[in-house]
C-alpha cells in the first residue's frame, strides 16, 4: 500500500500537484500504523477487548485508505484510457468536481489516520510485544512510543531499503535480543550498550560522540554470530579500544575490524589494534584499512587457536606478514593491498612448535605491488593441505619466487595467476610434476609470460585458461621427439586461449594428443587455418568448439575429422568461408557429420560455402545464422531435405538475403525464425508457405 502511494507521487502526478502534500502525509502515517499492526499480528491471540478494539480502529482506518487509493487508481486508469497513453493527471483535474470530491475524501482519511496514530501509540503502551517485523521499500519512521515495548525481543527492519528513523529511548528495550537493521542505521541508536541481552548486531559504527563510542560494546557479552565494527579511526587509544572487551565476547564467530579515512595523523593505531584482541573462540577475522606499521601481538601468537579464516586488506604500512603458520585450524587466508610487503619470509610459516599451516586450504594474494621473494622452509613441508592458490596483481613476483611457492603444494587442485607481469616462464617439469592433484589452471594478463615451462608434467590438469598473454604461444613448434607425448597434458578436458600470441603452428602443438579434450574456445587470436587431419583425429572426445574474433581465419583445415563434435560456433570470423574448397563441391564434407548445433555469426560465408557446410549434417538440430551479409539465397531444397533432425532455424540481420525458397523442404517449419533481413520485406519474394516466419 505504501509502495502504491509512492508510485503515484513519483510518476503519476503533475509537478507540485494539489494533493502531493496530502499523499506524502498519507505515506508517513501509514508507515507508522502498519508497523504497529504488524507488531499486533505477530502477538499470540488475545481476548482482551481493549486491545482488540484498538486494533480494529487501526485496521478500519487502513482499509479506508486502501479504498481511497483504489479509487485514485481507477481515476488514473480512466485518464490513461481517455488519453491513449500512460500520463500524469492534469493539474486542472484536482479542481474539477470529481477532483474536489477526491481531495475531500483524502482529507477525511488523513484526519482519521492522525487520530488512529494516537491509538497506535496507546496500543504499544498496553501490549508486551516480543517480535516486530517492518517490511517494505519505503522509509520507516518508528512511532515515538516504540521504546515502551519493554518485552520486545526481536526487531526486524532488514527488508526496508530506505532509511529507518528510530525514536529516542531505544536503549530502554533491555530485553531485545535480535536487531536486524541495515548497518548504516544502527548508529542512530544512542547508548546501544544498555541492550545487554542483544545477541545479534550486524554492524557497530564507532563514533566520537557520547553514547556511540566503542565502549558501548563493553557489556554486550551475549553478542554472537557476525559483528562488523567500522570507523575505528574514531578510537583514540589502546585503553579506549580495550574498553570494548572484545576478548570477552565468546559467542562471536566472525569479526570485522574496519578503519575509515581520517585527516588526523595517527601514530598509535598499532596500540589500538592491540586493544581489540578478540576472544580465542573466534573463527573468522577481517582487518581492513588499518594504517599501523605492524600486526598485533595477539595475531603473532597462538591466541586465536580456533581461527579458520583470515582476511587482511589494505594494511598498507605492514612490511612483513605475521607468523600465521602456527594457527592450527586456519583454512582460508586472503591478503590484499599490502603495498609494503616485499617478501614472504620464514617467519610467515611460524615461530613456535606448530608451523607450516597444517590445515590451510585456500591462499589468496591480491594487489601486492612490491612482492618479489618467496622463501620456503627446508626442514619441513609447508602447506600440506593447500588446494587453492591465487596470485593477482603481483607485478614484481619473479619466476624463482613463484617456483619456490609451488614446489611443496602436493594437494593443490586450483591455481590462478593474474597480472603478474614479471613472470616469464612457468616452473620446470621437475617442480610441476609434484602437483599431482592440480585440476584447474588460469593464467590471465601476464604480459611478459612467454613459456609454459614444464606444463606437460601436470598429469591431472583438466581445465586450462590462457587469457591476455600476448607473448605466450607466439613461437612454439612441437619437435618430432615430443610428437607422441604432446605439449599440453593429455588429461585436459577444457581449454580456452583468448588474446594470446597463438599461431597456426603453436595451435597444432597445443592440440596434439589431447584425447580427453571436450571443450575448446579460441578467441581474438591471429590464426589463419585450423590444424590438419593428423592433429584433429586425436581429439576423439571434443564436443564443443568455439571461435570468436579470429579475424585472419580462412581455412577449416581438418575440422571434418572431429567425429565427436556436437556444438560448433563461429563469431566474428569475417574471412571464414568466403570461399569453400572446390573439393567440397564434389561431395567432400568440410564439417563433422555428428554436429547438432551450428552458429555462424558475422562470418564471410556465401551461398555456395553455406550449401557445402550443410550438405552432410543429418544430425543437425539447431542452426543460427546472424550478420552474414555474403548470403543472398539460402541453399536449395535438396540441401535442406537432408536436415531431417533440424528443429530450430534462426536467421537474423542478413542484409543481402533475398531468397529462402529452399526452406520449403523443411518438415518442421514452425521452428523457423527470420528477422531483420530487409530485402525479404517484399512479400512477393517469399512464398505464402514461409511468409509467417519472417518478421
UniProtKB/TrEMBL annotation:
Domain of life (superkingdom): Eukaryota
Single Gene Ontology MF annotation: nucleotide binding
UniProt-listed Gene3D superfamilies: 1.20.5.4130, Ribonuclease Inhibitor (3.80.10.10)
Disease resistance N-terminal domain mapped to chain residues: 17-86
Boundaries of every R13L1/DRL21-like LRR repeat region domain copy: 214-338
Keywords: Leucine-rich repeat, Nucleotide-binding, Plant defense, Repeat
Organism listed in the record: Ananas comosus var. bracteatus
Record protein name field: Uncharacterized protein
InterPro entries associated with the record: LRR_dom_sf, LRR_R13L1-DRL21, Rx_N
One record GO biological process: defense response
Homology family: Belongs to the disease resistance NB-LRR family.
Amino acid at each position: 500500500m505504501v509502495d502504491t502511494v509512492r508510485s503515484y507521487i513519483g510518476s503519476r502526478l503533475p509537478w507540485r500537484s494539489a494533493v502531493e502534500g496530502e499523499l506524502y502525509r498519507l505515506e508517513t502515517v501509514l508507515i507508522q500504523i502498519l508497523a504497529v499492526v504488524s507488531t499486533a499480528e505477530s502477538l499470540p491471540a488475545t481476548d482482551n477487548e481493549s486491545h482488540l478494539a484498538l486494533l480494529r480502529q487501526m485496521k478500519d482506518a487502513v482499509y479506508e485508505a486502501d479504498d481511497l487509493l483504489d479509487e485514485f487508481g481507477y481515476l488514473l486508469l480512466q485518464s490513461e484510457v481517455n488519453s491513449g497513453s500512460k500520463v500524469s493527471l492534469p493539474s486542472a483535474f484536482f479542481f474539477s468536481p470529481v477532483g474536489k470530491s477526491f481531495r475531500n475524501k483524502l482529507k477525511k482519511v488523513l484526519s482519521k489516520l492522525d487520530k488512529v496514530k494516537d491509538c497506535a501509540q496507546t496500543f504499544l503502551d498496553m501490549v508486551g510485544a516480543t517480535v516486530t517485523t517492518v517490511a517494505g521499500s519505503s522509509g520507516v519512521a518508528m512511532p515515538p512510543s516504540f521504546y515502551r515495548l519493554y518485552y520486545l525481543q526481536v526487531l526486524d527492519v532488514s527488508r526496508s531499503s530506505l532509511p529507518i528513523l528510530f525514536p529516542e529511548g531505544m536503549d530502554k528495550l533491555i530485553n531485545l535480543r535480535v536487531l536486524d537493521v541495515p548497518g548504516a542505521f544502527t548508529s542512530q541508536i544512542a547508548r546501544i550498550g544498555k541492550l545487554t541481552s542483544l545477541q545479534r548486531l550486524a554492524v557497530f559504527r564507532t563514533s566520537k560522540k557520547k553514547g556511540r563510542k566503542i565502549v558501548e560494546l563493553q557489556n554486550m557479552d551475549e553478542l554472537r554470530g557476525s559483528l562488523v565494527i567500522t570507523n575505528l579511526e574514531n578510537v583514540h587509544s589502546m585503553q579506549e579500544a580495550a574498553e570494548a572487551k572484545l576478548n570477552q565476547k565468546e559467542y562471536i564467530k566472525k569479526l570485522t575490524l574496519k578503519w575509515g579515512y581520517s585527516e588526523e595523523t595517527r601514530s598509535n593505531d598499532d596500540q589500538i589494534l592491540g586493544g581489540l584482541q578478540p576472544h580465542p573462540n573466534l573463527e573468522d577475522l577481517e582487518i581492513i584499512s588499518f594504517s599501523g606499521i605492524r600486526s598485533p601481538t595477539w595475531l603473532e601468537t597462538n591466541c586465536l587457536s580456533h581461527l579458520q579464516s583470515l582476511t587482511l586488506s589494505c594494511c598498507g604500512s605492514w612490511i612483513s606478514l605475521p607468523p600465521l603458520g602456527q594457527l592450527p585450524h586456519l583454512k582460508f587466508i586472503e591478503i590484499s593491498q599490502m603495498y609494503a610487503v616485499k617478501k614472504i619470509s620464514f617467519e610467515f610459516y611460524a615461530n613456535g612448535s606448530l608451523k607450516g599451516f597444517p590445515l590451510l586450504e585456500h591462499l589468496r594474494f591480491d594487489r601486492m605491488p612490491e612482492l618479489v621473494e618467496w622463501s620456503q622452509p627446508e626442514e619441513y613441508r609447508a602447506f600440506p593441505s593447500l588446494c587453492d592458490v591465487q596470485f593477482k596483481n603481483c607485478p614484481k613476483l619473479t619466476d624463482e619466487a613463484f617456483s619456490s611457492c609451488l614446489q611443496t603444494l602436493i594437494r593443490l587442485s586450483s591455481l590462478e595467476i593474474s597480472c603478474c607481469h614479471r613472470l616469464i616462464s612457468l616452473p620446470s617439469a621437475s617442480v610441476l610434476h609434484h602437483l599431482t592433484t592440480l585440476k584447474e589452471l588460469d593464467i590471465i594478463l601476464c604480459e611478459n609470460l612467454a613459456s609454459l615451462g614444464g606444463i606437460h608434467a601436470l598429469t591431472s590438469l583438466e581445465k586450462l585458461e590462457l587469457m591476455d598473454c600476448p607473448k605466450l604461444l607466439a613461437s612454439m613448434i612441437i619437435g618430432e621427439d615430443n610428437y607422441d607425448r604432446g605439449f599440453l597434458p593429455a588429461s585436459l578436458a577444457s581449454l580456452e586461449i583468448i588474446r594470446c600470441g597463438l599461431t597456426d603452428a603453436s595451435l597444432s602443438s597445443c592440440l596434439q594428443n589431447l584425447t580427453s579434450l571436450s571443450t575448446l574456445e579460441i578467441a581474438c587470436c591471429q590464426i589463419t587455418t585450423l590444424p590438419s587431419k593428423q592433429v584433429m583425429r586425436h581429439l576423439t572426445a571434443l564436443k564443443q568448439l568455439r571461435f570468436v574474433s579470429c579475424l585472419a581465419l580462412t581455412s577449416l583445415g581438418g575440422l571434418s575429422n572431429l567425429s565427436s563434435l556436437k556444438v560448433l560456433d563461429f563469431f566474428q570470423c569475417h574471412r571464414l568461408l568466403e570461399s569453400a574448397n572446390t573439393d567440397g563441391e564434389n561431395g567432400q564434407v568440410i564439417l563433422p557429420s555428428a554436429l547438432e548445433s551450428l552458429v555462424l555469426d558475422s562470418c564471410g560465408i556465401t551461398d555456395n560455402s553455406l550449401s557445402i557446410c550443410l550438405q552432410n549434417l543429418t544430425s543437425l538440430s539447431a542452426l543460427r545464422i546472424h550478420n552474414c551479409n555474403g548470403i543472398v539465397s539460402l541453399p536449395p531444397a535438396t540441401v535442406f531435405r537432408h536436415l531431417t533432425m533440424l528443429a530450430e532455424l534462426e536467421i537474423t540481420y542478413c542484409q543481402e538475403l533475398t531468397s529462402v525458397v529452399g526452406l520449403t523442404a523443411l518438415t518442421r517449419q514452425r521452428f523457423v525464425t527470420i528477422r531483420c533481413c530487409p530485402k525479404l520485406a517484399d512479400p512477393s519474394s517469399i512464398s505464402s508457405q514461409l511468409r509467417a516466419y519472417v518478421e
